Amino acid sequence: MGMEENDRLGFLTKLARFDWSLLAVALALSAFGIVVVYSATYSSESQDFRNAAFSQTVWLLIGIAVFLLLSFIDYRLWVKWGWLFFLASLPALFLVLVVGQTVNGAKSWLRVGPISIEPADLTKVGFVLFGAWWLDRAKSRGIVFAAPLLLAMAIPTILVLKQPALGSAGVFLPLCFAILFVGGLKMRYVFLGVLGLVGVLAYAYLGVGKLGWDIPGLKPYQMNRIRTFFDPTLDPLGAGWTINQSLIAIGSGGMTGKGYLQGTQNMLGFLPKNIAYNDFIFSVVGEEWGFFGGAAVIVGECLLLLLCLRIAFGAREPAGRAVAVGIATILFTHIFVNVGMTIKVVPITGIPLPFISYGGTFLISCLAGLGLVESVWIHRKTKETDFREP
């Protein structure tokens, strides 16, 4: 009886510490996402597209359950086995290269009965846990600290590039850098990392944009996307079509939009149906809800990031800060690249917008990540339990 009472009190204490704002913002964005997914697919001739909003609702309910499960279990337990979660996610990345399902030119999906799973989304969360696990054990904050994380980052990055899914592969680098930074990497190495990033951007802008050089390892269609980013007139009916239609859709929405279910660029198929409900969902938002609708989505996403960072600052342990900052970095990278590619700020790479775009694996992985962040907040006042191996 006493044990049951203690367990009950423990649960009530955790419930009292629950940060409802984190869940509320995520649910508000997800609910709006379902509304926009329906708008992007209701006029499609394909039954699968017309069922997308219902499927997204089911995925959301599953994601909420995952969020709550991870929230109430001490995050240190997940960090303890972070290395295992990360390693367990890698075989799926190998498997997808062999028997994966090709969608929009990338072999990124594993088909399990009626369900399609994108392993890269789960690997991102696994890498956060691995980074927190290593941060909790590494004594040095120099090369010895950075090298294992850089090596671990390179493995999924290379595998995802082979799919090829440039957008997902590009998430691992800033994610690794964020964990190293919050983990206290010596500033001279941080400076070298920033310098390397500037070099990559300079190569892309000058070498690819101005001189027409190729980027090693990228497919021809990926290079075409990058080149048309710098000059959409190079192939207006091919590689430049989508970005041009996206700009027309967002621009034609004006300040208040054309109205719900009234987006002609989307409804008439000028914005391709197979990407309007996921990678280019922000274009649909801009056309139907206008500048105010798009701004509201960005404000909501930024609020979610700020809540994650608030929890990171409130964490008493480096591992907890790494988890919160790592999940925030995943979300930020997706938000920046997805919105940026629809308005021609970054090249088209094919990456979804958190909680708005269609995609079951991605939605669940985002809610799982937020569940880990919520756990950091709930357990921030508890004494550190020794979850480490003896």
From TrEMBL:
Q: Which GO molecular function annotations are given, in alphabetical order?
A: lipid-linked peptidoglycan transporter activity
The GO biological-process annotations, alphabetized, read as: cell division; regulation of cell shape
Membrane-crossing residues? 20-41, 53-72, 84-103, 115-135, 142-159, 165-182, 189-208, 289-309, 321-343, 355-378
Q: How does it sit in the membrane?
A: Multi-pass membrane protein
**Where's it found, cell-wise?**
Membrane
The yes or no answer to whether the keyword Membrane is present is: yes
InterPro entries, alphabetized: FtsW/RodA
Which keywords does this Swiss-Prot/TrEMBL entry list? Answer: Cell shape, Membrane, Transmembrane, Transmembrane helix
Instruction: Report the domain of life of the source organism.
Output: Bacteria
Q: Which GO terms describe its cellular component?
A: cell division site; plasma membrane
Q: Name one Pfam family in it.
A: FTSW_RODA_SPOVE
Q: Which residues form the signal peptide?
A: none
For the keyword Membrane, the answer is: yes
Protein name, UniProt field: Rod shape-determining protein RodA
Q: Which organism is it from?
A: Methylacidimicrobium cyclopophantes
